[in-house]
Amino acid sequence: MLVIVVENAPPRLRGRLAVWLLEVRAGVYVGNYGRKVREHIWSQVEEGLEDGNAVLVWRSTAEAGYEFKTLGANRRMPVDFDGVQLVSFHPPSPGNAP
User: How far apart are CA 7 and CA 36, in angstroms?
Assistant: First the structure.
């Protein structure tokens, strides 16, 4: 199983993702493909994302049972902590502080 979530993605990329995956919510795509197809789909995201951001999550044999990677600017960034993938939050930019 794989899940791709995109934000601020161009319509062309969203249409391309909809060819391979089911869009269950706006910008949330799910499917069940192996490694080669997953890598092909992610390469399409890398090529077409422009100024948006995306995350790809897939089932694996890792400790957590899944792995993920991100693309584009976002406060949440993956970090490796002793072989376990976690999420680190970057502080908000000065213009976006509460």
Answer: 24
Q: How confident is the model at residue 76, as a pLDDT? A: 72
**CA torsion through residues 14, 20, 23, 27, sign:** negative
Q: Spell out, as residue ranges, where the chain has pLDDT lower than 70.
A: 75, 90, 93, 95-98
Range(s) of the domain holding residue 80: 2-96
CATH number, domain with residue 46: 3.30.70.240
How far lies 86's CA from each of 33, 73, 83, 96, in Å? 24, 17, 9, 24
Q: Please answer whether residues 67 and 78 qualify as being in contact, where contact means their C-beta atoms are separated by less than 8 angstroms.
A: no
Task: Give the largest CA-CA distance in the chain.
Answer: 43
What is the tally of structural domains in the chain? Answer: 1
- Predicted TM-score (pTM) of this structure: 0.82
